[in-house]
Each structure stands twice: as structure tokens, then as C-alpha cells.
């Protein structure tokens, strides 16, 4: 899906790691939401409350999930993140991403 219809976009950005990672929340009519964002090259560690699917629209990164080995993810690919964990990313090039939250 290359676009979303009938959504609300929150103007306030989520800004992490001194501005190297940003996202904006979009809310669907049913109350579900996604975030759309950009990550600059660097190393990051995130924590999750809800399960997520991270879809990479542009760029390349490596992800390390608990109990797994580093995995390279490139444009057009995605990866699942379980709820309640911490995971690491090494962003190799500018990454444009869409994060879907699983209820």
C-alpha cells in the first residue's frame, strides 16, 4: 500500500536520539495507528510495548532481536518485533519506514 486514505495525522513529531530518528503518528478511522518516520545512519536501541511490524520503504539497516542473529533488512522488506522487548538497529543509510502496531 503506497498511500493511506481517511486518516488523521498528528502534527507533533516523535523525536528520538537528538533528532536522528523521527516519526509521525497516523490514526485510522477504527482507532488503529501507524507511524511513518526517518532514521539517519547510526546505532540505536528501542523498547516496545506493543508488537510491531517495521516496513522499510527506503534504505538499509541491520536488526538484532532477542535470541536471534543480526539480520540485514532493505527497502521493500519488513520485520516483526514482539511486544515487551528491547532490540537494536544499525542504520547503514537513511531509512524511511512505516511501523504498524499490532493489537
Automatic annotation (TrEMBL):
Signal peptide: none annotated. Its EC number is 2.4.2.1, 2.4.2.2. One of its GO terms (cellular component) is cytosol. Keywords: Glycosyltransferase, Transferase. CDD domains: cupin_PpnP-like. InterPro entries: Ppnp, RmlC-like_jellyroll, RmlC_Cupin_sf. One of its GO terms (molecular function) is purine-nucleoside phosphorylase activity. The keyword Cell inner membrane does not apply. It catalyses: xanthosine + phosphate = alpha-D-ribose 1-phosphate + xanthine; cytidine + phosphate = cytosine + alpha-D-ribose 1-phosphate; thymidine + phosphate = 2-deoxy-alpha-D-ribose 1-phosphate + thymine; inosine + phosphate = alpha-D-ribose 1-phosphate + hypoxanthine. Catalyzes the phosphorolysis of diverse nucleosides, yielding D-ribose 1-phosphate and the respective free bases. Can use uridine, adenosine, guanosine, cytidine, thymidine, inosine and xanthosine as substrates. Also catalyzes the reverse reactions. Belongs to the nucleoside phosphorylase PpnP family. This is Pyrimidine/purine nucleoside phosphorylase. It comes from Desulfovibrio psychrotolerans.
Amino acid at each position: 500500500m503506497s498511500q493511506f486514505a481517511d486518516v488523521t495525522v498528528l502534527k507533533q513529531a516523535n523525536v528520538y536520539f537528538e533528532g536522528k530518528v523521527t516519526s509521525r503518528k497516523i490514526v485510522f478511522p477504527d482507532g488503529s495507528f501507524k507511524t511513518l518516520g526517518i532514521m539517519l545512519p547510526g546505532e540505536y536501541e528501542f523498547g516496545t510495548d506493543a508488537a510491531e511490524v517495521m516496513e522499510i520503504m527506503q534504505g538499509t539497516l541491520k536488526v538484532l532481536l532477542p535470541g536471534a542473529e543480526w539480520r540485514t533488512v532493505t527497502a521493500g522488506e519488513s520485520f516483526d518485533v514482539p511486544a515487551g522487548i528491547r532490540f537494536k538497529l544499525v542504520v547503514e543509510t537513511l531509512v524511511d519506514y512505516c511501523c504498524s502496531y499490532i493489537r
